[in-house]
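Entry 12.
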Amino acid sequence: MRIDLHNHTTRCNHAEGTMDEYIQRAIELGIDIYGFSEHAPMDFDEEYRLLFEEMQAYTDDVLTAREKYKEDIKILLGYEVDFLPNHMDERVLNAKVDYLIGSIHFIDKWGFDNPEFLSGWKDKDIDEIWKAYFEATEAMAKSGKFDIVGHLDLIKIFKFMPKQDIRFLAENALKAIKKSNMVLELNTAGLRKPIGEIYPSRPLLEVAYDLEIPITFSSDAHSIEHVGFGYEEATTLAKEVGYTKAVTFQGRDRELVIF
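Predicted 3D structure (tokens):
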């Protein structure tokens, strides 16, 4: 069973290609379950996400595609939600979807993974940035509002690495993820970034396995070429660590499948 749950559309304003093209590529690659998880609307950083007035159109597009391609592939509906206190919206958090991905893209409203704000890394204590990132991840998990943890160690994207052991920095976040019964995605977008590594790293995935945190798979596609990208590397890593099953969703209910 091949799963790819974290993917975008042009409605986020920084992706390219039609939904049909994404789905057709997924079918070509033998993907069984393909999920759209557009950047959810929010009253912050609005240029990089779906607008509130587009939510119904986005839902209709995905459900139409689900029906159109039902003989060839299972299409799921989700959102990637930025965990940013006082900016998340109940219209998103209570939306009728298959799953919600909770992601950290901002530390004190600084978009640390956006190349436009790369200068924000200068003259900062790298260990403190990593600590703040995982503290935000811990708070996101404790909120109980999400199903999947988006790209757990996205903070490594530009290869600004801490001196402290990353497993120590992420310890409380991973324990909160376990307690909140969340799923960890193996997100291959990191292979396309300066870090050149899947999110999360092997050491963090090993800790997750020891904690019995379930996993799923994502390519975080923003173009047709990204669909299914690095899938074999992700499944190989997961199997080497010890995983044999992954999670898929339907209406916020989860199902374990063999990958």
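Annotation: DSSP finds seven helices and nine strands in the chain. The chain has a mean pLDDT of 97.
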